[in-house]
TrEMBL record:
Classification via PROSITE patterns: CARBAMOYLTRANSFERASE
Organism expressing this protein natively: Mesonia aestuariivivens
Reaction catalysed by this enzyme: carbamoyl phosphate + L-aspartate = N-carbamoyl-L-aspartate + phosphate + H(+)
Recorded family membership: Belongs to the aspartate/ornithine carbamoyltransferase superfamily. ATCase family.
Signal peptide: none
UniProt-recorded name of the protein: Aspartate carbamoyltransferase
Length: 304
C-alpha cells in the first residue's frame, strides 16, 4: 500500500518497522546537521483544509530533514474558496510533478476518497473525527520510549472520545500492540458500542487513573460539537479535569500525555501539563522522527 490512511489499514509489523526507522531518524535529528539526503528526488505537497500547528510544522520539518522538495497549501488562501473541488485541486497540484500528498481535511474519509481518485501517495494528517494515524504512531512511540514497551501497558484515553480522531487511531494502534485500553469521559462524549473495538468504558476518572500506567488527556472539541452533547465546562472540569491534587492522591506514578492543543484549566491544569509526569513536548519532538519514518518508507515504495 502506498498510503497511510489510518491505523485501521496497517499491521503490527508496519508499526514495528516505522518505530525502528524512527529510532534511526531520531538519532539523525539530534546531530548538529539534522538532515539526510534520502528524498532529494521526491516532491511532497502538504494540503491543510483545517487548522493545525503541530502536525503541519512537524510534517514540513520531517520532509525537509529528508531533503524532499516541499510545497504547502492552505485551503483558506486557495482557489477552494472560489469553489474548486478537492479532486481538481489535488490533480492540479499533482500535474506539477508532486509525488506525495499529506492532507488534513475536516471530512471523515477524505484521505480514502482522495486515494481512490488521484495518482499519488496519500498520508492522512487528520480527517474529521475519523483518524489521525501519525498522531497515534507518535503517541505509541512516546509510550515505548518512556516505559520500554507498549505491550501490556494500561492506557486510559480521557475526554471527548466521540469527536476525536486521536482517540480512534490511538485505540487501533494500542490494541495492535497488545496494550489494555480504557476510555473515560462523560457518557454523552463516548460513542455507543465502542466496546466492540476491545476497549472498556470507565466514567469515573479516579478509578481510571488508579488502573492506568498512561493517561492520554484529550481536548473537548467544541468546534465539532452540538452544544447539547456537552456537560457545562464547570461540570466537565469537576468530573474529568486532571489536576495536581488528584494526581498526587493516587500514590502511584503515571505518565501524562496530551496531543495538543491544550485547553489549560479544562481537561488538564498547568501544574500537571508542565510537570515531570507529562511527556507532552516529547510527543511533539518524537512526531518529527515518526513522520520522517512514515514518509521515508512510503517514498521507498514510490521509487521501486
Ligand atoms: N495534535 C495535533 O494534531 O495538533 P494540531 O491540530 O496543532 O496539528
Amino acid at each position: 500500500v502506498n498510503h497511510l490512511l489510518g491505523i485501521k489499514y496497517i499491521t503490527k509489523e508496519d508499526v514495528d518497522l516505522i518505530f525502528k526507522t524512527a529510532d534511526h531518524f531520531k538519532e539523525v535529528i539530534n546531530r548538529p546537521i539534522k538532515k539526510v539526503p534520502s528524498l532529494r528526488d521526491i516532491t511532497i505537497a502538504n494540503l491543510f483544509f483545517e487548522n493545525s500547528t503541530r502536525t503541519r510544522l512537524s510534517f514540513e520539518l520531517a520532509e525537509k530533514r529528508l531533503s524532499a522538495d516541499v510545497v504547502n497549501f492552505s485551503a483558506a488562501s486557495s482557489s477552494v474558496k472560489k469553489g474548486e473541488t478537492l479532486i481538481d485541486t489535488v490533480n492540479n497540484i499533482l500535474s506539477m510533478k508532486v509525488d506525495m500528498v499529506v492532507m488534513r481535511h475536516p471530512n471523515p474519509g477524505a484521505g480514502v476518497f482522495l486515494s481512490q481518485h488521484v495518482n499519488a501517495s496519500i498520508v492522512n494528517a487528520g480527517d474529521g473525527a475519523h483518524e489521525h494515524p501519525t498522531q497515534a504512531l507518535l503517541d505509541s512511540y512516546s509510550i515505548r520510549e518512556k516505559l520500554g514497551e507498549v505491550t501490556g501497558k494500561n492506557v486510559v484515553i480521557v475526554g471527548d472520545i466521540l469527536h476525536s480522531r486521536v482517540a480512534l487511531s490511538n485505540i487501533f494502534a494500542l490494541k495492535l500492540q497488545g496494550a489494555n485500553v480504557k476510555v473515560c469521559g462523560p457518557k454523552t462524549l463516548i460513542p455507543k458500542h465502542i466496546e466492540k473495538l476491545g476497549v472498556e468504558v470507565e466514567t469515573n476518572l479516579r478509578k481510571a487513573l488508579e488502573w492506568c500506567d498512561v493517561a492520554n488527556m484529550l481536548r473537548v472539541q467544541n468546534e465539532r460539537m452540538d452544544i447539547s452533547y456537552f456537560p457545562s465546562t464547570r461540570e466537565y472540569v469537576q468530573q474529568f479535569g486532571l489536576n495536581k491534587d488528584l494526581l498526587g492522591s493516587l500514590n502511584k506514578e503515571i505518565t501524562i500525555m496530551h496531543p495538543g492543543p491544550i485547553n489549560r484549566g479544562v481537561e488538564i491544569t498547568s501544574d500537571v501539563a508542565d510537570s515531570d509526569h507529562a511527556i507532552i513536548l516529547d510527543q511533539v519532538q518524537n512526531g518529527v522522527a515518526v513522520r520522517m519514518a512514515v514518509i521515508y518508507l512510503l517514498a521507498s515504495k514510490i521509487k521501486q
